[in-house]
């Protein structure tokens, strides 16, 4: 009888602990599923989304949201610097070494 009462108390404690975990706050989805798919088509700066062609001032440097590699149709967008003539300054591509 004593063992049954100990097992009963343990069971009640277990049930109580399991139900106490269900009081966690409800999670909310802050991102539209379609936006998650199209993440490559926007630029981010200071928690704001910018579309392609947006020009902003970042640390006294003008930058534009544009394709990382313009020769590819679905290239991800990135921030690139602009010079005084409003021309995009593309970064230098590092030379690669191929070993056969």
TrEMBL record:
Record-given protein name: DUF1496 domain-containing protein
Native source organism of the sequence: marine sediment metagenome
